[in-house]
Every structure is written in structure tokens, then in C-alpha cells.
Write a structure and sequence with these properties.
Elements (H helix, E strand, L loop, with lengths): L5 E6 L5 H13 L3 E6 L9 H8 L15 H8 L2 E7 L1 H9 L5 H7 L5 E5 L3 H5 L1 H12 L3 E2 L3 E4 L5 E5 L3 H13 L7 E6 L4 E2 L5 E2 L6 H12 L3 E6 L9 E5 L3 H12 L4 E4 L6 E3 L18 E3 L3 H7 L5 E8 L4 H9 L4 E6 L11 E2 L1 E4 L5 E3 L3 E2 H17 L4
Helix pairs in contact: 1-2, 1-8, 3-5, 4-7, 9-13, 10-11
Bound molecules: ligand PMT.
Length: 396
């Protein structure tokens, strides 16, 4: 459930901060993308370099000295979940009362993501009426509290207030994300443009960058899906995605058909060649021999193969149109899809290589839903919301 999920790990100033480094490691091992925010007090207990090395990104340690203009809103909006371990009495109190003076509490307040708190403090502090009031407020706000446990504390003391072990906190984060909308849904996505060899150095290709398919794959992972991405383009995004690199329509067909039956949803966002050179040259074609007469033959129709299979997934096709989407309405009927996403690839800001896209959703019954110009990630998010409605009549 943690694969590909975006976790903000908040570290406040307690001895247990040394265990947060291990928690960060365990989250990374589970496939999560982890960003760390440290309070000034935390810096007395563990160095930011430790977290940089584990997560690959330097922690945010204050609101004003780093490169980001607004680190707390960036992180808060980015996070799928925020976990604070250790959460000291002071940090808990600031969260409960909204006192967002430091980067950590500001990030919490700037986030709509679920919040997991792992308190750590001496027994007297944990039992103090002020902390009792704080915890009551935090629980009433719906935050998730893990621990504290009992055992050895700082300074040789023993009692309640010991931070839960990193694996317990990891399990709590996992459980919180377990309610994710696409938990366990198996998704197959295609992306990029196929390349059909003319000779060993040249190919017939198209302008697809893979961005649309990548956004769909990443949004699905963020919602808890198990995602396989069959792509011709280099994918450097979420670690939670299983990537199958392919080149030609034939490769893509084989990779997709082998995985379609075990998928719940397939999204065919790749731009697949319809024709390929029938007899690619075995050696480089020479200019001196003049223009080659290229005979073309049809490629396999990847989408049609999935649509025709016995145990087929919920199937989403894309249609690259060069004008109004009238042709796509016929495609939605004839291609055997559950939903077709048409985009006019000649419109500015839409289609190939752009970060935005204006799409029209077409259902086989002829329903047409034009969506506004959105980022590709927003298209992906809306698409998954739409698919959830269609698959379950509500949430997925
Ligand atoms: O990758 P980007 O730069 O972000 O660009 C995104 C995109 C423009 C490529 C994407 O939004 C898109 O429109 N993808 C579909 C492109 C396409 O091939 O459209 P089509 O109308 O030719 O094909 C219709 C559907 O059949 C598509 O789902 C396609 O994947 C599939 N197909 C086509 C041919 C073939 N031999 N096999 C197929 O499965």
C-alpha cells in the first residue's frame, strides 16, 4: 500500500529522533517517496544529512532559508500522508492549537492528508493534564495516534511515553493509507509512441512523450493501485510503478496481452503505430541507393486484442484526433472500450509533449463529456474519479 505513496515525515526534538532515521529507511524500502521536515529542536538530536542520504532529498528545517518559496504549502499539498515521529508534547500542542510558527506545524496545517502522530516524551509529560487536553483535541480532530508504548525512556527512566517502534508506525501509516480509493486495484497503463524499424538506425515513430500515460500511472499509484506501465518512453517517476520497456507495437502487444487478464483496469494512452515497414532492412539503407520504396503492413491492434479477450479488464482507450472528436464517437462504439478519452492533438496546449491536455470523455452509449484544459495529472485524477463511479456506481 505504501508503494509510490508520498509521505511527509515530521521529526520533532526528542531522543527518539534517532529512530526516525530508521523509519525513513523502512518507508523508502516499502516504496514510499519520503520528504522530511525537522523542527529546530530535532536538529539537536539527529543531523539533516542522515535524512538526505536516506530519502535522497534534504529535509526542510525552516520556512525561510531553503530554496522553496513556500515549503510548507508545497509539501502539505504534495503529501498523501503526514507522519510525525517523534511527536513531542510541544509539537502536539502546537498542532492542536494551530500554532504554525515552524515548518513542521505549518506543513501539517497546509495539508489535507491524514496525519499520523507517534508521541514520545517522559511519563510525567504524557500524563500531564495539558497533554491530556492536547491529545483529546487531536483525537477529536480525527488524527491517528500510534503509541506511545511503555519501556525505557531517556535518562534511564522507565514508563509510558516511549515512541512506538518504527515498524509499528510504518504499519499505522500503511493502515491509514489502506483506505485509499484504489487500494489493491491492478492497473495496466501504456505510454509513449511506438518505434517501427525501417533499418537498424531508423524508425517510423510519432510525437508521444509518454507524459499522459505517466500521469495516469502516477495518479493510480498515489491512490493505492498496483500499477504496471508498458512504455516506449523513459519513465523516471514514482518508484511504485512496475515498468516494462518496449519499442514496437508488436512488443507492446505482447507485453499488454500477457498482463491484461490479471489487471482490473487497462488504460491505453500510448500512441501505437497502425502500420510498420513490412520488411525492415538488416543493414543501414544508403543514400547512394536512392529513396527506399517502403512497403507497409498493419501492426497488431493492442487495444482490440484486450477488448476481445475473455477475461478483459475495464478498458479505457485514447483517441488522438486532429480536429473535432466526431470520429472518436464511432471509435468508442467500435473499439469495445468502456470509456474513450479523445484529445485534439492539433490544439495548443493539448496532446503530444505538453503538460496540459483538453480531453473529451466518450462512453459507448454516446455520452460525451468535454473537460476543460487541465494539467495531465488533473486529467488523470478526474479520469480515475470517473472510472471509480463507473466501476462501482460510487467510490472504487
Ligand atoms: O504521450 P504524450 O506526449 O503525453 O501525448 C499523449 C497522447 C496524445 C499520445 C495521448 O493523449 C493519446 O491520445 N494517446 C492515443 C494515441 C493514439 O494512438 O490514438 P489512436 O486514435 O490512433 O488510437 C486509438 C486507441 O487505440 C489508443 O488507445 C491506442 O493506444 C490504441 N491502438 C492504436 C493502434 C494500435 N495498433 N493499437 C492500439 O492499441
Amino acid at each position: 500500500m505504501l508503494a509510490g505513496r508520498r509521505v511527509v515525515l515530521g521529526v520533532s526534538g526528542g531522543v527518539a529522533a534517532y529512530k526516525s532515521a530508521y523509519l525513513a529507511r523502512r518507508l523508502v524500502e516499502a516504496g514510499a517517496v519520503v520528504r522530511v521536515v525537522m523542527t529546530a529542536s530535532a536538529l539537536h538530536f539527529v543531523g539533516p544529512q542522515t535524512f538526505s542520504a536516506i530519502t535522497g532529498t534534504p529535509p526542510v528545517t525552516d520556512l525561510f532559508s531553503g530554496p522553496a518559496v513556500s515549503p510548507h504549502t508545497e509539501l502539505g499539498q504534495w503529501a498523501d500522508v503526514v507522519v510525525i515521529a517523534p511527536a513531542t508534547a510541544a509539537t502536539l500542542s502546537r498542532i492542536a492549537t494551530g500554532l504554525s510558527e515552524d515548518a513542521l506545524v505549518a506543513t501539517v496545517l497546509a495539508s489535507k492528508a491524514p496525519l499520523v502522530l507517534a508521541p514520545a516524551m517522559h511519563t510525567e509529560m504524557w500524563e500531564h493534564p495539558a497533554t491530556r487536553r492536547t491529545m483529546a483535541l487531536l483525537e477529536a480532530d480525527g488524527h491517528h495516534v500510534v503509541g506511545p508504548g511503555s519501556g525505557p525512556l531517556a535518562m534511564g527512566d522507565v514508563g509510558t511515553g516511549r515512541m512506538s517502534e518504527p515498524d509499528e508506525i510504518l504499519a499505522a501509516v500503511d493502515a491509514v493509507l489502506g483506505g485509499s480509493p484504489m487500494g489493491g486495484v491492478r492497473v495496466l497503463v501504456t505510454a509513449g509512441g511506438t518505434r517501427e524499424p525501417i533499418d537498424p538506425v531508423r524508425y517510423l515513430g510519432n510525437r508521444s512523450s509518454g507524459k499522459m500515460g505517466f500521469a495516469i500511472a502516477e495518479e493510480a499509484v498515489a491512490r493505492g493501485a498496483v500499477v504496471t506501465l508498458v512504455t516506449t518512453a523513459d519513465f523516471t517517476g514514482d518508484r511504485g510503478v512496475e515498468v516494462v520497456a518496449v519499442e514496437t507495437a508488436q512488443d507492446m502487444a505482447e507485453a499488454v496481452w500477457a498482463r491484461a487478464a490479471e489487471s482490473d483496469v487497462a488504460v491505453m494512452a500510448a500512441a501505437v503505430a497502425d502500420f510498420r515497414p513490412a520488411d525492415p532492412a538488416g543493414t543501414k539503407l544508403r543514400r547512394k541507393d536512392g529513396p527506399p520504396g517502403l512497403e507497409l503492413e498493419p501492426t497488431p491492434d493492442v487495444l482490440a486484442g484486450v477488448a476481445a479477450s475473455d477475461d478483459r479488464p475495464f478498458l479505457i482507450g485514447f483517441a488522438a484526433e486532429t480536429g473535432p472528436s466526431d470520429g472518436a464517437i464511432e471509435k468508442a462504439r467500435s473499439k469495445g472500450v468502456d470509456l474513450l478519452v479523445a484529445n485534439d492533438v492539433t490544439e495548443d496546449g493539448s496532446g503530444f509533449g505538453t503538460d496540459t491536455n483538453r480531453v473529451t470523455i466518450i462512453l459507448p452509449d454516446g455520452t460525451v463529456e468535454p473537460w476543460p484544459m487541465l494539467t495531465k495529472r488533473e486529467v488523470a485524477a478526474r479520469l480515475w474519479d470517473r472510472v471509480a463511479e463507473m466501476r462501482t456506481g460510487g467510490s472504487s
